């Protein structure tokens, strides 16, 4: 029956990881993974997560409700919108536990496809590779909007605004809440305000992908600025949240879809429909990761400890940005590397060409994505000197 099924290509990111694993050179460096690493190059269980994990009580293996753990959902909603959000006060929000950020995007896409008047979704060029695949599977019509300007290695703000203006009215616009993946380029707060003006004029609907809150700056409110600003401006929106990076819970698949609607009745109706989408997709979500997060978010002291963990991670990334930048410059870089300091979050969009990337890998055993994206967490005090040399060599 399935004799004619064609072999699909491997996932680009996982393919780089496999090549890294197969390399036997001791100097090899993996800058491709989308996960935090310590200065020793190892994964990090957040101390607050480890502490809570040891105290989880009453753990049985009963089903969770379709929409997940209610304490978790309330905590995640507050995290995205801010406890004092007008939308929460007016009871016009709902939040549903999801299979991490990817699961939230998938259910959000299906919801939009089924219920929104427009099937058009605007997606930045470039964006996280999975966005396009997810939206395509939900039968949305993808329209790219300009975002990254290669000449400045920064934001193409004029291009973005022009494309939002030119798009059909009532389109959905996918916005990275902070720490844009793969570019590390975010709008300033003033630019967010202008984006909101255009989106309001056009009746566009914001779909936020929030995968790096707190992980970017260590400050949870700063990293949620865009979401909270849009809600203050009276927008309805969907927010896809991931606990992979900011809680280090990658394989626990803890995420959330928070919705802001214009009325309490709409919030109840949307919740009921989201539950139907969940029920027919995977019935109900897993417990463990969400239970850990629920404990942390609902306890002031643990919350504070978690913020310290976030500062540890974001601080190390910032320090690696500065140190790698300085080392490349000190070794006689022939081009400007200030974008390494300006870009934010886990990734630097280096501007390295595919040929330079190829040389880094084949000659220097440095593994990164073809588009030149590097994960700053893969940089550490042990490999920084070697890496800076390699980058200077291939860019001479
Ligand atoms: N969105 C963006 C922009 C991401 O970078 C990622 C992970 O790398 C995700 C969503 C989803 O991650 P997860 O499904 O692990 O929460």
UniProtKB/TrEMBL annotation:
Catalysis performed (reactions): L-aspartate + 2-oxoglutarate = oxaloacetate + L-glutamate
Keyword hit for Transferase: yes
Assigned protein family: Belongs to the class-I pyridoxal-phosphate-dependent aminotransferase family.
Domain Aminotransferase class I/classII large: 27-391
GO-annotated biological processes: amino acid metabolic process
Organism: Sphaeroforma arctica JP610
Quaternary structure note: Homodimer.
Protein name as it appears in the record: Aspartate aminotransferase
């Amino acid at each position: 029956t399935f004799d004619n099924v064609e072999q699909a290509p491997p996932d680009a990111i996982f393919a780089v990881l496999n090549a890294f694993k197969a390399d036997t050179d001791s100097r090899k460096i993996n800058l491709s993974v989308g996960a935090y690493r310590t200065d020793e190059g190892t994964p990090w269980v957040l101390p607050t997560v480890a502490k809570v994990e040891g105290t989880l009580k009453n753990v049985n293996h009963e089903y969770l409700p379709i929409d997940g753990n209610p304490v978790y959902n309330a905590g995640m909603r507050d995290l995205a919108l801010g406890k004092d959000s007008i939308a929460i006060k007016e009871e016009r929000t709902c939040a549903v536990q999801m299979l991490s950020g990817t699961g939230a995007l998938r259910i959000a896409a299906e919801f939009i496809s089924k219920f929104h008047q427009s099937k058009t979704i605007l997606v930045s060029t470039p964006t996280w590779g999975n966005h396009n695949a997810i939206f395509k599977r939900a039968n949305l019509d993808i329209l790219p909007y300009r975002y990254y300007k290669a000449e400045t290695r920064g934001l193409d703000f004029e291009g973005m605004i022009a494309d939002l203006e030119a798009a059909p009215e009532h389109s959905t616009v996918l916005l990275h809440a902070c720490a844009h993946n793969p570019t590390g380029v975010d709008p300033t707060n003033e630019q967010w305000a202008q984006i909101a003006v255009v989106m309001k004029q056009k009746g566009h609907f914001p779909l936020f992908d929030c995968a790096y809150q707190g992980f970017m700056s260590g400050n949870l409110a700063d990293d949620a600025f865009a979401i909270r600003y849009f809600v203050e401006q009276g927008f309805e929106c969907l927010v896809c949240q991931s606990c992979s990076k900011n809680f280090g819970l990658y394989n626990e698949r803890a995420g959330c879809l928070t919705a802001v609607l214009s009325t309490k009745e709409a919030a109840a109706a949307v919740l009921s429909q989201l539950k139907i989408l969940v029920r027919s997709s995977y019935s109900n979500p897993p417990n463990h990761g969400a239970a850990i997060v629920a404990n942390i978010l609902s306890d002031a002291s643990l919350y504070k400890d978690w913020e310290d963990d976030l500062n540890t991670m974001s601080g190390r990334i910032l320090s690696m940005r500065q140190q790698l930048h300085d080392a490349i410059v000190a070794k006689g870089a022939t081009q400007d590397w200030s974008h390494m300091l300006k870009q934010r979050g886990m990734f630097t969009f280096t501007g390295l060409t595919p040929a330079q990337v190829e040389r880094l890998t084949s000659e220097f055993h440095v593994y990164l994505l073809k588009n030149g994206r590097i994960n700053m967490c893969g940089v550490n005090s042990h490999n920084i000197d070697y890496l800076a040399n390699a980058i200077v060599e291939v860019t001479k």
